[in-house]
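DM from R.C. (forwarded with permission)

"hey, sorry to bug you on a friday — could you get me a structure for this? deadline for the figure draft is monday and I only need the backbone to look sensible"
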Amino acid sequence: MNKTFWEEAVLEPLRRFVDQALGFLLNNFLAMVVVLLAGILAAYGVRLVVGVLLRMVRFDAFCERHGVTAALRTAGVTRPPAAAAARLSWWLIVFVFLMFSLAALNVAPMTDMVSRLFLLLPQVIAALVILLLGYLVSAFLHRAALLA
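My reply, with the result:
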């Protein structure tokens, strides 16, 4: 079968490109969307559970007694601490699932970026725990100095 120049040079590469683009869209992009939607649904569930649990254990009253609410107001947070913690948990879950959905694209730079980010995650969590402990110790020392 003789192929003309037009078929060989233009149409065949165009067909291959369309096949690869549709394959990418149908496989990787749809997988990304499904993972992201599942993450958003999971985040709403976690937000609801965290909000209910923190209200049950009276987290707002605990934060008020220890001065956390006043510190949050100073920082510009107007929500109660339980609602702020529930919203923070929502954003953390959405962020994690966003990273998973980017990895589902199977694009090498995205996969590399996501793996590097998850390698840094324990260090970020440790830094946040140290920051929280430092705040609690400083609040305790502040009250101790006032009483002394």
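R.C.: lifesaver. The CA atoms of residues 40 and 97 lie 8 Å apart.
me: no worries. The mean pLDDT is 85.
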